UniProtKB/TrEMBL annotation:
GO terms for cellular component: plasma membrane. The keyword Aminoacyl-tRNA synthetase does not apply. It comes from the Archaea. Belongs to the AzlC family. It comes from Halorussus gelatinilyticus. It is found in: Cell membrane. This is AzlC family ABC transporter permease. The chain crosses the membrane at residues 12-34, 40-60, 67-89, 131-154, 166-190, 202-222. The keyword Protein transport does not apply. It is a multi-pass membrane protein.
Length: 226
């Protein structure tokens, strides 16, 4: 038997391993904001409003370089375009939710919340999707905000030997590996990753979008051929 409470707790539990990487990732984002000259209050506000690690790091870097506001906003929007694909993919599972709930769930949408929730929804029709997703998303949100605040408080005093930035790719690898379940997803991951590395030098972080589109196309082609 499932219930909102048990499904919420299940969502929190599945997020726990991911939180191990979220903590240093959030600290990196907080430190980057402070080092870019963003006031602590502004850095916290940016974390709450954007709630997207890669975008926050890019925004902090651009602010530190005195880039125009329009460039900062455009860059954040481009990096977060992948959320449109996530939304289109997971939206059918929330068709019966009210507009208010859809708005709240959309705010909590992240790479990690999308990946682990979609895996559960595809394999368990009895789960309360709203509450399971809220469990995952809330655990990620609270941990991220706290870790960011810690990074903001520590600022430049974080020793370089801690190598916190190493946690950034680990967080995404922790989400990627369980999602590769067949030939199509394997091809998508391999091709997308390769294109992402090759397209690193593209302006405005367009390499990420390019890699995502090419990876998806490769996965679809592999599924058709299989």
């Amino acid at each position: 038997m499932t219930s909102p409470r048990t499904d919420f707790r299940a969502g929190v539990r599945v997020a726990l391993p991911i939180l191990l990487g979220i903590v240093p990732f959030g600290m990196v984002a907080g430190v980057a904001a402070v080092n870019a000259g963003i006031p602590p209050v502004g850095a916290v506000a940016m974390s709450v409003v954007i709630f997207a690690g890669a975008s926050q790091l890019a925004a902090a870097e651009l602010v530190g370089r005195n880039a125009p506001a329009v460039v900062v906003v455009f860059t954040v929007l481009v990096i977060n375009l992948r959320m449109m694909m996530y939304s289109a993919s997971i939206a059918p599972y929330f068709q019966r939710e009210s507009t208010r709930w859809k708005g709240a769930l959309a705010y909590l949408l992240t790479d990690q919340a999308y990946a682990v929730s979609l895996l559960r929804f595809e394999n368990d029709e009895s789960v309360s999707r709203r509450w399971y997703y809220l469990g995952v998303g809330s655990a990620l949100w609270v941990t991220w905000q706290l870790a960011t605040v810690v990074g903001i408080a520590l600022g430049a005093s974080v020793p370089d030997g801690w190598r916190l930035e190493f946690a950034v790719p680990l967080v995404f690898l922790a989400v990627l590996v369980p999602a590769v379940t067949d030939r199509a997803t394997g091809v998508a991951a391999l091709v997308g990753g390769s294109v992402g590395v090759a397209a690193t030098g593209l302006p405005f972080n367009l390499g990420l979008i390019t890699a995502a589109v090419v990876g998806i196309a490769a996965g679809l082609l592999a599924e058709e051929v299989a």
